[in-house]
Amino acid sequence: MQRDKIKPILFSIIKHSSKEDLRRQIPKDIVSGVVVAVVALPLSIALAIASGVGPAQGLYTAIVAGFLIAFLGGSRVQISGPTAAFATIVAGIVATDGMEGLVAATIMAGVMLVLMGLLKLGTLIRFVPYTITTGFTAGIAVTIVIGQIKDLLGLTYPAGTTTIDTTDKLGALAANISTVNWQAVLVGVVCLAILMLWPKVSKRIPGSLVAVIVGAAMVPTFGLQVNTIGDLYTIEASLPTLQFPQLSLDLFRDELANGITIAILAAIESLLSCVVADSMISGHHRCNMELVAQGVGNMGSVLFGGIPATGAIARTAANVKSGGRTPIAGMVHAAVLLVLVFLMPYAALIPMPTIAAILLQVAYNMSGWRNFAHLCATASRGAVATLLLTFTLTIVFDLVTAIAVGMLITVVLFMKMVSEETEVKGWTYFCDKDSEVTHLRELPKSVRVYEINGPMFFGMTDRISDISVKDFTKYLIIRMRGVPSLDATGMNALENLYEYCTENGVQLIFSHANEQPMRTMRRAGFVDLVGEERFRPSIDDAIAYARTQLEQEEKAA
Asked: Is the Cβ–Cβ distance between 49 and 277 less than 8 Å?
């Protein structure tokens, strides 16, 4: 694997590409950036509203974070901005702690991401199991769907109705379902139909843009009584400006858990998007530099009035399909959105059911329900339990709880699986096709052999206690060629075995100890305790050594 470098990939492309290659590619990247900006415009507005902030803040996020992450990032084609994965998390923070709480949490998340990159922890993301990422992604999709039913149906809630948690939203939906606005339902259904069918008409023009235009035209044309963005938000055509909110140490302390949530999700989502992008362009991203860029981009976003951002798989895919191959496309996408900010007053015409329809499509696309169903049908019971639990906890509680519990269960299941693969068995003589010799080995009656296969760690050391000796046993050989690793608990078990043998007058001999176990035993002083000469390179050598020792004892007697 190529060694990851803490260096923006843009500089590497410019340095190692010929002028002719750049001259041919840059126009393609500019065109791709424009296309992606058109795709990102309605999505940024919709995701900002789903996050409990104003529509302009979604554009500010795509502009500032999109530019910084493309400029500094470790991926050639990654497009970053507001994503559905953050919507419910951000909405919860804003509802309970306001924008100051969101800024504090995101700044801490940004610092964590930068530190993760500088410490080269990007590769650790691969240790998050597929069942967990599938579970929490599907869970986030469900929370988005639940959050958009109100606007899709045009429901009206009494003042003071609490709709922060998913359970609160479900309760409010059940209590106010009688207030359904059928005109809003009509707009939403039409926009959903456009989103589903438009790709069959044209793949170059995004269906979300067509749905926005049609939805905005339906309301005034037919005189429909449907809420629009302008009815709920104040829209201004203003550029993002640097803001310094009032922050305090107490606020940072209170938002630490939220900061960890944002950092974890940003790291996982961005690097997963990079992996998908790599597969599309046969490239290789720099995971640690990507984390640094995500950290800087998120801090820049909230300081310019935006919200948390991460790599967006749909927009990244649109960039690749449009011909983008360098970070210039992501930077152009941000620049085009900066120009489109001046069209924001027209966003006031967009109906809320249209926004809900766009977000429902986003939720469907991110849910990965086919992968979810495939795992449920084919994975082991433990993996399915982890998947379903992560999915449920994401909906009922939050992402950190879901990931923490999912990882805990995964680790326990992994240890159980590995421990079941480890075996301790005794034999009188032994031979198989992988044996170091092909003939059967005769053992003296007073020599007993046990073979250990599998890692010796805290999950299986109790099996060492199964080793026993007879009254006539003088030498016990432990064959360790099948032991790849040994931890401190396994080392303690061997020390206990040595004491047991000493108490019973039995000499301990080890055969074929591999490098890591041998290093652990030396560090613990166990080799000196047992004796260097009693660690033999092969089972035949160990048996021969035991036989020689017996002969010497007989002569001495």
From this structure: no
Amino acid occupying residue 178 = S
- pLDDT tens, residue by residue, 36-83: 999 999 999 999 999 999 999 999 999 999 999 999 999 999 999 999
> Which is nearest to 327 in space by CA: 67, 52, 1, 17?
67
> Where do the DSSP E strands lie in 47-165?
80-81
User: Residue 531: which region, alpha, beta or left (left: phi > 0; alpha: psi -120 to 50)?
Assistant: left
Q: Which residues pair with 239 in a beta bridge?
A: none
Q: How far apart are CA 33 and CA 550, in angstroms?
A: 81
Q: Hey, how many other C-beta atoms are within 10 angstroms of the C-beta on 373?
A: 10
C-alpha 439/C-alpha 432 separation (Å) is: 9
CA distance 297 to 303: 10
* Contact assessment for residue 285 and residue 78, using Cβ atoms and an 8 Å cutoff: yes
pLDDT in tens, 451-467: 999 898 877 777 887 88
**CA–CA separation, 64 and 242 (whole Å):** 11
Nearest-angstrom CA–CA distance, 29 and 77: 10
- Return d(Cα 541, Cα 51) in angstroms, integer: 69
Instruction: Report pLDDT digits (tens) over 473-529.
Output: 999 999 999 999 999 999 999 999 999 999 999 999 999 999 999 999 999 999 999
Distance CA 498, CA 530 (A): 8
The answer for residues whose C-beta is within 8 angstroms of residue 325's C-beta and 6 or more apart is 25, 28, 29, 76, 77, 281
DSSP string, 336-369: HHHHHGGGGGGGGGSBHHHHHHHHHHHHHHHH-H
Q: Tokens for 207?
A: 């269906």
462/466 Cα distance (integer angstroms): 8
pLDDT for 428 beyond 60: no
Contacts of 46 (CB under 8 A, 6+ apart): 58, 208, 355, 358, 359, 362
Count how many residues are written for the chain: 557
pLDDT of residue 1: 40
User: What are the beta bridge partners of residue 478?
Assistant: 450, 510
Q: Where are the beta strands (DSSP E) in 158-217?
A: none
CA-based radius of gyration for the chain: 31
DSSP 165: S
Token output for 30: 């500019």
For residue 118, how many C-alpha atoms fall within 13 Å in the half-sphere facing its CB? 8
Q: 475-482 and 507-511: which strand pairing?
A: parallel
Q: Judge if pTM exceeds 0.70.
A: yes
Instruction: In whole angstroms, give the CA distance from residue 499 to residue 526.
Output: 12
What tokens does 141 get?
A: 């999709």
CA atoms within 13 A on the CB side of 344: 23
